[in-house]
Amino acid sequence: MTDTPADDLKPSFRSDVTVELVKHTASDADVLFAARVSTVGEQSLEELGKDPERSKGLINYLMRDRHGSPFEHNSMTFLISAPIFVFREFMRHRVGWSYNEESGRYRELEPVFYVPDASRKLVQEGRPGKYRFVEGTQGQQELVGRVMEDSYRQAYEAYQEMLAAGVAREVARSVLPVGLFSSMYATCNARSLMHFLGLRTQHELAKVPSFPQREIEMVGELMEAEWARLMPLTHAAFNANGRVAP
Ligand SMILES: Cc1cc2nc3c(=O)[nH]c(=O)nc-3n(C[C@H](O)[C@H](O)[C@H](O)COP(=O)(O)OP(=O)(O)OC[C@H]3O[C@@H](n4cnc5c(N)ncnc54)[C@H](O)[C@@H]3O)c2cc1C
């Protein structure tokens, strides 16, 4: 009998990222009650919902004048699946974020790798910090797909060879590339999420443009859609005030 790799050990290739909102206590009311304690003290919870227009105005005022702390009394936990190079960038966001990522020491890493699809612009123009990306040629697209897949397969085979020889996972994983998918829980609040979105998304309403890598922006866009559903007034005020975190 010959040894054939199990199906789940055959490399697979993905061009998407996924974001699932797994847990939350986040609403516009959380901002209002925190802000109104300034003026109505312990009674602030009772003030909620009394005057929707005033509430909207208060959230907008807090955002505009960068009174940031009322936007911290909420919590969102996301399960994110993305390539390791995205997580390297993601974890630079230190303040108001908690992370737990799957371990390459305690479990065998699955062979799921990132290969961009045709919508991913491949060619970079312009100066550092202000890049512009343009479509690649068909030849470049084919090259990227072929070279990435070959190289991922080779790296994963080397990983498997070492594991089969009894080498520890934490040693063998050195050969795996940053295009390998990982997963993590990331917990934040609206203020830390806005800071992240201001830096990691491009948007026509942004007062301070940013030039993020497309793949972390894809994660940001999915998180933003979940957050906008939970806190529509806060999200609208963020956009109306140039997408600068308060
Ligand atoms: C387009 C882009 C390109 C980038 N390129 C590079 C790169 O080439 N190389 C690289 O190393 N990084 C790069 N980064 C990462 C960047 O430098 C930040 O580490 C990352 O964006 C997180 O931002 P932050 O520190 O504001 O966030 P957080 O760590 O969440 O901090 C939030 C805020 O808290 C305050 N704060 C946090 N820590 C401190 C501190 N120690 N002292 C004082 N104030 C603090 C600051 O006001 C900060 O803005 C890039 C980021 C972007 C968006």
Automatic annotation (TrEMBL):
Q: Which reactions is this enzyme annotated as catalysing? A: dUMP + (6R)-5,10-methylene-5,6,7,8-tetrahydrofolate + NADPH + H(+) = dTMP + (6S)-5,6,7,8-tetrahydrofolate + NADP(+)
Q: Does the keyword Ligase apply?
A: no
E.C. number(s) listed in UniProt: 2.1.1.148
The residues listed in the UniProt record as binding FAD, with positions renumbered to this chain, are 69, 92-94, 101, 189-191, 195
List the molecular function annotations (GO) for this entry: thymidylate synthase (FAD) activity
**Quick one: which residues bind dUMP?**
89-92, 101-105, 173, 200
HAMAP family (alphabetical): ThyX
**This protein's superkingdom?**
Bacteria
Q: How is the cofactor bound?
A: Binds 4 FAD per tetramer. Each FAD binding site is formed by three monomers.
* Record text on subunit structure and interactions: Homotetramer.
Q: Which NCBIfam families match?
A: thyX (TIGR02170)
Q: Which PROSITE patterns match?
A: THYX (PS51331)
Cofactor(s), by name: FAD
Q: In the UniProt entry, which residues are flagged as the active site? A: 200
Keywords noted in UniProt = FAD, Flavoprotein, Methyltransferase, NADP, Nucleotide biosynthesis, Transferase
Q: What does this protein do?
A: Catalyzes the reductive methylation of 2'-deoxyuridine-5'-monophosphate (dUMP) to 2'-deoxythymidine-5'-monophosphate (dTMP) while utilizing 5,10-methylenetetrahydrofolate (mTHF) as the methyl donor, and NADPH and FADH(2) as the reductant.
Name of the protein this chain belongs to = Flavin-dependent thymidylate synthase
